[in-house]
Write a structure and sequence with these properties.
The chain is mostly beta strands and about 425 residues long. The chain is elongated and about 105 Å long. The N and C termini lie far apart (about 110 Å). The longest helix is centred in the N-terminal third of the chain and has 26 residues. The strands form three sheets. Strands 1-4-5-9-10-11-12-14-15-18 form a ten-stranded antiparallel barrel. It has a four-stranded mixed β-sheet with strand order 2-3-7-8, with no helix packed on it. A two-stranded antiparallel sheet has the order 16-17. Strand 9 and strand 10 form a beta hairpin. It is built from three helices and 18 strands.
Length: about 425
């Protein structure tokens, strides 16, 4: 009973083991072709297409449909650019280099003693030596005219207003007055004393106060230069402003119109001034001063214009009411001995009033030629030659010596000139 059952079980196990081998032989390993006589799968050279599901986007760098590009494009279409070449002049009340002198006379020809005609002086700082004739130097001889510069203005047409952002800068102007042949000129013409000044070859004298009091021609303390004298001044100005103007009052953009103006302005003015001189047998004497003026504040004004197809004539008055943060420095060296260096910083009320008159010739809707004139008036300006106090005091030995110090003084300054340029519209 037991053996037939064992044989049947063994046969069943053998069938289970051999069945996968038979299937592999029939279909081939890993589902291959197997024995062709047993099973044949028809083959076709056609392969089904591969579907690419990648959808390419817009690869353009500039696409007006995007918000940022659309905004920039709108700004470009509503803006314009003006570039100008400037030729301006600096004015001001440049006066005597040194302290005031009392009792100077003016003759019938309008000539003033010490400026137009020489006067006799004694060198009171050196024992009262008679140095002959002398003239006083004046800062008005230093010229700061025809200073070149540039100005750029970017304008944007807003909804209900116009915006103008501008920048201007003038090149650094320098002016020098030099006389290196004071004594040498006298030697060349055969004068016996190269130190003694004459009417034709006078010395140079920078007058001083006497303990804060102006002197007179007969009793004057002064820095006397018998060999050489030179003075110089340099000036540089730049600034920026932003202005918002109301829409033109004239409909259609032609005819007479008026626009109110408001905005903010910053202006910088840097100046340096100094002089140096020598006398026969002594070391050089020099005095130097510099100032930095920083104007800033709100500004108001307006623009009147007369516009046609080919021409635009405009006048833009405006005034900035703000502050002037200014710094002043003064230093000296008397006969080779260095003096005290002074520095002062003040914040004063200051204004910048400007009138711009312009004529534009419209050559095309996108291009115009421009010519204009600017008049600028600054108040509360710290200028270097006005910040020097020329005094003389007694030293510890009772001798009279020069005492160069600093004083705070402000005045007005006029800057004006012409400009030419072009306007580009997009």
């Amino acid at each position: 009973m037991i053996r037939p059952n064992l044989r049947s079980f063994a046969a069943a196990v053998a069938c289970m083991i051999l069945a996968p081998s038979a299937a592999s032989a029939q279909y081939g390993e890993y589902g291959g072709g197997g024995d062709p006589s047993m099973f044949h799968v028809p083959q076709s050279p056609y392969r089904p297409p591969v579907q690419d599901y990648f959808l390419p986007g817009n690869n353009d760098v500039w696409d007006e449909s995007r918000p940022i590009e659309r905004f920039v494009g709108d700004v470009k279409q509503r803006s314009w650019l003006k570039l100008e070449f400037l030729m301006w002049n600096y004015g001001g009340d440049q006066d005597l280099i040194g302290a005031n002198v009392s009792g100077l006379q003016q003759n019938t020809r309008g000539e003033i003693d010490g400026r137009d005609t020489s006067i006799p002086l004694l060198d009171n700082l050196n024992g009262g030596t008679d140095i002959g004739e002398a003239l006083f130097p004046f800062a008005s001889a230093l010229n700061n005219d025809d200073v070149a510069g540039i100005r750029g203005t970017w304008g944007l047409d807003l909804n209900g207003a116009d915006m103008e952002l501008s920048f201007f800068g003038l090149g650094q102007s320098s002016s020098t007055l030099t006389n290196d042949d004071i004594s040498a000129s006298r030697v060349r013409v055969g004068l016996a004393d190269p130190v003694f000044g004459t009417t034709a070859f006078p010395n140079i004298a920078v007058p001083l106060l006497t303990d804060g009091t102006p002197g007179t021609p007969t009793d004057l303390n002064a820095l006397i230069f018998t060999e050489s004298f030179s003075s110089h001044i340099s000036t540089q100005m730049w600034g920026t402003e932003i202005a918002f103007l109301t829409d033109r009052s004239a409909p259609g953009g032609s005819g007479a119109s008026w626009q109110w103006l408001g905005g903010f302005r910053y202006l910088n003015l840097d100046e340096q001034f100094g002089f140096s001189g020598t006398s026969v047998g002594t070391a050089a004497t020099s005095v130097a001063a510099n100032t930095i003026n920083n104007y800033f504040g709100p500004q108001v004004g307006g623009r009147a214009a007369l516009t046609s197809k080919y021409l635009t004539l405009s006048a833009t008055p405006r005034v900035m009411l703000g502050l002037n943060d200014n710094t002043s420095r003064v230093g000296s060296s008397i006969a080779g001995v260095a003096g005290t260096q002074y520095t002062t910083r003040d914040v004063d009320f200051g204004t910048v009033t400007q009138l711009n008159m312009a004529l534009e010739l419209h050559l095309s809707p996108q291009f115009s030629m421009y010519g204009g004139y600017d008049y600028m008036w600054l108040t509360g300006v710290s200028r270097p030659y006005n910040n020097i106090l020329y005094d003389s005091t007694l030293d510890g030995t009772g001798a009279r010596v020069a005492d160069i110090r600093q004083k705070s003084d402000v005045q007005n300054l006029i800057v004006n000139g012409f400009s030419i340029g072009a306007t580009f519209r997009y």
